[in-house]
């Protein structure tokens, strides 16, 4: 049934990809005049409502790819299309949850969440009211008056999530958002993310180095090779049913089968990545 | 250490110092007085001088003059520093052009400017204000400039991704960051405003704490010099307490906001 409806729609017109990278290449000039090619000829499509996780060894250019989709970085070659329109400048359809702390330290949690609405012209009173509701939905209703430094790492990530989601972006970009958190908090945050996401199913591009996290969250797992000239070397659809419970899903047989299959590929890249980053002339 | 005990120890230091001073200047040890009272006065003379000033009320005029000069120097210097620092921070090319001149001006000992200001602005309060401004301006300028440039790249990217225009970035990101740096230097800049005012008075004026000290020195009235110094110190401590209270409010969002003491 699903297959049939897909066939009827002409691809790229009636149901365009949320994100479409065609041979995207990113290169940085080095100080000695040479060029470091971070990402080479990446083809990637994220459908509307699809949750895609990108996994790869450290320094493989996962974040670079995300910055390209966000419009923070211009690719040296190839094209970026967002809902079938070429991307110029910043991606206004995307919300970005950064790996590092990105909250405004001089604003309270409430103001941090409300700011996205305020700059879009929403009246302050209304923005604050909606922000308060969002804080409640991420479980921080009583922390509205706290400044970021008074919150724990996990709480700051919740505020960050609310800050991004309140603008209702059609695409959600996440760069190892739960990286700095401890294992338990990561799982709780993963559950929260899936709960919020299932309400309206935005297109998600989720970068992580944690394969288990990727499988537990995503519809599709994309593996990148070690840099430089990082490429996509494999894609696996995740056959696990939704809604998922992050803790439960890790016990399922399908999870383990898929994990073993992907890990056999990823392991080589991780080893290669470490070997390269250990050499002084790694950029050559 | 609890507060009362700490206060007790702090007072003890003052009492011991005063007692030692008193003994050395009034009681003969080993057949002679170790610190000649002509050069070192003694605590009782100094205290009675201070009391006399406050009883007669003459001190209030000098205190208020110095206070007005310091506050004007602080406000004008800070405004200038914020405006120029912010401008340079946002316009790196302008900053690069003016960089050597800023460094030159800052390296100049401000005392040498005092005669110029006295010539230009007369012996009234404005020549003292000008001297204070040259001190305050650079502290605020460097802090604001740094504050604008040290905005975290991630926070900026976040602002952009949340849809901020350049103007909104200025208002919601650069501005608060620059001001926080300025506020964190409040103690220093207020202190320098007072220094500018007092040094200016000392070098030529008709009123103010600096004038009081300079006049006493002119007639070798060491007790009055010390008395002037003590009044000045108490004045600075009072101002500093005020600054701390303001800082607590303004920098509540900073992890170490109230921790300057």
Task: Provide the fold topology.
The complex is a heterodimer of chains A (284) and B (261).
Chain A: H1 2-8, E1 19-29, E2 35-46, E3 51-55, H2 62-70, E4 77-82, E5 85-86, E6 94-97, H3 109-118, H4 124-137, H5 153-165, E7 171-175, H6 183-200, E8 203-208, H7 211-217, E9 220-224, E10 232-237, H8 246-249, H9 253-278
Parallel strand pairs in A: 3-8, 3-9, 6-7, 7-8
Antiparallel strand pairs in A: 1-2, 1-4, 4-5, 9-10
Chain B: H1 3-26, H2 37-40, H3 43-56, H4 58-90, H5 92-107, H6 114-121, H7 125-149, H8 153-161, H9 166-184, H10 186-203, H11 209-218, H12 222-250
Helix pairs in contact in B: 3-12, 4-5, 4-7, 4-10, 4-11, 6-7, 7-9, 7-10, 8-9, 10-11, 10-12, 11-12
Walkthrough of the structure:
- The complex is a heterodimer of chains A (284) and B (261).
- By secondary structure, chain A is of the alpha/beta class.
- Chain A has 2 domains: 2-93 and 169-278, 3-Layer(aba) Sandwich (Rossmann fold), CATH 3.40.50; 99-168, no CATH class.
- Chain A has 9 helices and 10 strands.
- Chain A has helices spanning 2-8, 62-70, 109-118, 124-137, 153-165, 183-200, 211-217, 246-249, 253-278, and strands at 19-29, 35-46, 51-55, 77-82, 85-86, 94-97, 171-175, 203-208, 220-224, 232-237.
- In chain A, the strands form 2 sheets. Chain A has a 6-stranded mixed beta sheet with strand order 6-7-8-3-9-10, sandwiched between helices. In chain A, strands 2-1-4-5 form a 4-stranded antiparallel beta sheet, covered by helices on one side.
- In chain A, strand 4 and strand 5 (85-86) form a beta hairpin.
- In chain A, helix 3 packs across helix 4 and helix 7 (211-217) runs antiparallel to helix 9 (253-278).
- The longest helix of chain A is centred in the last third of the chain and has 26 residues, at 253-278.
- The termini of chain A are far apart.
- The relative contact order of chain A is 0.16.
- Chain B is an all-alpha fold and 261 residues long.
- Chain B folds into 2 domains: 1-40, no CATH class; 42-250, MetI-like (MetI-like fold, Orthogonal Bundle).
- Chain B contains 12 helices and no strands.
- Chain B has helices at residues 3-26, 37-40, 43-56, 58-90, 92-107, 114-121, 125-149, 153-161, 166-184, 186-203, 209-218, 222-250.
- In chain B, helix 4 packs across helix 11.
- The relative contact order of chain B is 0.12.
- Mean pLDDT of chain B is 90; it is low at 257-261.
- The A-B interface holds A 70, 72, 90, 92, 94-96, 98, 100-108, 115-116, 119-120, 147-149, 163-164, 167 and B 152, 154-155, 157-165, 168, 172-173, 176-177, 180, 252-255.
């Amino acid at each position: 049934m699903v297959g049939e409806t897909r066939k009827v729609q002409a691809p790229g017109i009636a149901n365009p990809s949320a994100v479409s990278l065609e041979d995207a290449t990113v290169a940085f000039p080095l100080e000695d005049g040479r060029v470091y090619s971070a990402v080479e000829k990446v083809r990637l499509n994220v459908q509307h409502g699809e949750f895609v996780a990108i996994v790869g060894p450290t320094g493989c250019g996962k974040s670079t790819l995300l910055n390209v989709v966000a419009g923070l970085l211009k690719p040296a070659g190839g094209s970026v299309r967002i809902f079938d329109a070429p991307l110029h400048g910043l991606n206004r359809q995307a919300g970005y949850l950064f790996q590092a702390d990105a909250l405004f330290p001089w604003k309270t949690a409430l103001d941090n969440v409300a700011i996205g609405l305020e700059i879009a012209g929403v009246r302050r009173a209304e923005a604050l009211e909606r922000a308060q509701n969002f804080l409640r939905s991420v479980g921080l209703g009583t922390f509205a008056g706290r400044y970021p430094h008074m919150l724990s790492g996990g709480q700051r990530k919740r505020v960050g999530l609310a800050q991004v989601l309140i603008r209702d972006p059609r695409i959600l970009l996440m760069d190892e958002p739960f990286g700095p958190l401890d294992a338990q908090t990561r799982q709780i945050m993963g559950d929260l993310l899936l709960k919020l996401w299932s309400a309206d199913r935005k297109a998600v591009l989720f970068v992580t180095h944690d394969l288990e996290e990727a499988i537990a969250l995503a519809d599709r797992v994309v593996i990148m090779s070690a840099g430089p000239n990082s490429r996509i070397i494999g894609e696996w659809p995740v056959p696990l049913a939704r809604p998922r419970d992050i803790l439960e899903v890790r016990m399922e047989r399908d999870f383990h089968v898929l994990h073993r299959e992907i890990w056999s590929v990823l392991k080589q890249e991780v080893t290669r990545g470490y070997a390269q980053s250990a050499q002084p002339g790694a950029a050559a | 250490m609890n507060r009362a005990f700490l206060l007790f120890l702090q007072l003890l230091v003052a009492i011991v110092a005063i007692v030692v001073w008193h003994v050395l200047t009034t009681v003969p040890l080993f057949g002679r007085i170790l610190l000649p009272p002509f050069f070192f006065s003694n605590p009782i003379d100094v205290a009675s001088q201070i009391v006399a000033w406050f009883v007669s009320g003459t001190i209030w005029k000098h205190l208020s003059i110095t206070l007005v000069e310091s506050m004007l120097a602080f406000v004008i210097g800070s405004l200038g520093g914020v405006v120029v620092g912010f401008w340079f921070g946002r316009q790196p090319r302008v900053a690069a052009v003016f960089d050597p001149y800023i460094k030159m001006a800052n390296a100049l000992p401000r005392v040498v400017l005092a005669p110029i200001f006295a010539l230009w602005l007369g012996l009234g309060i404005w020549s003292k204000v000008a001297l204070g401004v040259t001190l305050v301006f650079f502290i605020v300028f460097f802090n604001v400039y740094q504050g604008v440039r040290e905005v975290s790249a991630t926070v900026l990217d976040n602002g952009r991704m949340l849809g901020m225009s350049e103007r909104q970035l200025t208002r919601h990101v650069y501005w608060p960051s620059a001001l926080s740096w300025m506020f964190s230097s409040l103690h220093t800049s207020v202190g320098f405003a007072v220094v500018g005012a007092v040094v200016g008075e000392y070098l030529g004026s008709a009123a103010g704490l600096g004038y009081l000290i300079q006049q006493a020195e002119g007639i070798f009235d060491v007790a009055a010099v010390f008395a002037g110094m003590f009044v000045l110190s108490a004045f600075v401590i009072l101002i500093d307490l005020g600054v701390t209270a303001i800082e607590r409010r303004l920098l509540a969002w900073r992890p170490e906001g109230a921790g300057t003491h």
